[in-house]
TrEMBL record:
Family in the record: Belongs to the insect chemoreceptor superfamily. Gustatory receptor (GR) family.
Keywords tagged on the record: Cell membrane, Membrane, Receptor, Transducer, Transmembrane, Transmembrane helix
Family annotation (PANTHER family): GUSTATORY AND ODORANT RECEPTOR 21A, INVERTEBRATE GUSTATORY RECEPTOR
Species annotation: Drosophila arizonae
Cellular compartments annotated: Cell membrane
Protein name: Gustatory receptor
Length: 403
């Protein structure tokens, strides 16, 4: 392109700057600082104002466990997932050079998940066969009964998506848990204070119990509102509805944890600015923020497939239930069956609202709110020798947005 432009007397186009992801940008900045440090050493100059990222060290696993408050406070939900066979990750022994959370297809947690899934699938197949048979051979096919059959058959198919949507992404989930473990210890070493998750321990326990109670309540309501809904059908839907509730609870907890970590990081940054020579640690704080952004990206890689199928099922159920209930009310008036459909619609809409609202909350806390606090920092409070470096770090930080 440049040769074509010069041969015709035109000004060649300038080079397009490459778009770097946070990892590439971090590597490039470290290389530039290291070269600057070598030049200053060769010239005999002082290198106090040159920050170079500290080399990664192997942390003591006992220290990682000591500061891993996120795992301790959310352990009840992880154990419930193991019991239900939804996500069979396990905790490795405290050995150096071994991740604290792991996933193996030969672990006892996976074997238990296969056993529970086999028992659950047997009941699901029996109920599915009964519903399909009744749907095909019923002589009087009312529209509302057809809608109910479509909804409950689609919910049963959720059971068959579990190995594909959840188990297959077990290694990515383990990476996400290990990132949380390492981040909390790194946060403690940088700021001198741990990340505190207030009320998360009782909240997680309450969500575990509430998920199953809500599943029982929804299934029993359908049993009383639907004359053709037998009691033994509910045993196929109890774990499915509880699994959907637990997925929503997990998303709520993860998003709130990101908001809490971002708030703790911003408070620590404000406290550091008021101290002596704060710019010596500003780049370390920026690295903590970039690591938090990386964890949000890993959250998407670990759970995207799972929540993608999850939202598809909820959208499909909501649309079918809404259309069926409104159509039946217009044609035949309101009955108890339509009340059951409205219960399903309200339940699905609540799940969608929680997922979307919490995702927006986490993105706002880690992204815009943290950047706003950076903008409000008074640069006159920063020591003069490090003011230029702080300005560069701030400009680079504002260009990185968590995804």
């Amino acid at each position: 392109m440049s040769f074509w432009a010069v041969s015709r007397g035109l000004t060649p186009q300038g080079k397009v700057a490459p778009m770097l992801n946070p990892n590439q940008r971090q590597f490039l900045e470290d290389e530039l600082r290291y070269r600057e440090k070598l030049k200053m050493l060769a010239g005999g100059n002082a290198i106090d104002d040159v920050y170079v990222r500290k080399p990664d060290t192997v942390d003591d696993p006992l220290e990682l466990d000591k500061h891993d408050s996120f795992y301790k406070t959310t352990k009840s939900l992880l154990v419930l997932f193991q019991i239900m066979g939804v996500m069979p990750i396990h905790r490795n022994p405290p050995v150096r050079n071994m991740p604290r959370t792991g996933y193996s297809w030969r672990s006892k947690q996976v074997m238990w998940a296969v056993f529970i899934y086999s028992c659950q699938t047997t009941i699901v197949v029996l109920v599915l066969r009964e519903r399909v048979k009744k749907f095909i051979t019923s002589p009087d096919k009312r529209f509302d009964e057809a809608i109910y059959n479509v909804i409950f058959i689609s919910l049963l198919f959720t059971n068959f998506l579990l190995p594909v949507a959840s188990w297959r992404h077990g290694p990515q989930v383990a990476i996400f848990k290990n990132m949380w473990t390492n981040y909390q210890y790194k946060f403690f070493k940088t700021t001198g204070s741990p990340i505190v998750f207030p009320n998360l321990y009782p909240l997680t326990y309450a969500l575990c119990v509430f998920s199953w109670l809500l599943s029982i309540a929804i299934n029993l309501s359908q049993y009383f509102l639907q004359p053709d809904f037998r009691l033994w059908y509910t045993f196929a839907y109890y774990p499915i509805i509880a699994m959907l509730n637990c997925f929503c609870s997990l998303w709520y907890i993860n998003c709130n944890a990101f908001g809490t970590a971002s708030h703790a990081l911003s408070d620590a940054l404000q406290a550091t600015i008021k101290g002596e020579k704060p710019a010596q640690k500003l780049t370390e704080y920026r690295h903590l923020w970039v690591d938090l952004s990386h964890m949000m990206q890993q959250l998407g890689r670990a759970y995207s497939n799972m929540y993608g199928m999850y939202c598809l099922v909820i959208f499909f159920t909501s649309i079918i239930a809404t259309y069926g209930s409104i159509s039946e009310i217009i044609d035949h008036g309101a009955t108890y069956k339509e009340v059951g459909l409205f219960v399903i619609v309200f339940y699905c809409m609540c799940l969608l609202y929680i997922i979307c609202n919490e995702a927006h909350y986490a993105s706002h806390k880690v992204g815009m709110e943290f950047q706003t606090k950076l903008l409000n920092i008074n640069l006159t409070a920063v020591d003069t020798p490090h003011k230029r470096k702080w300005t560069c770090c701030w400009l680079l930080s504002t260009r990185i947005r968590p995804s």
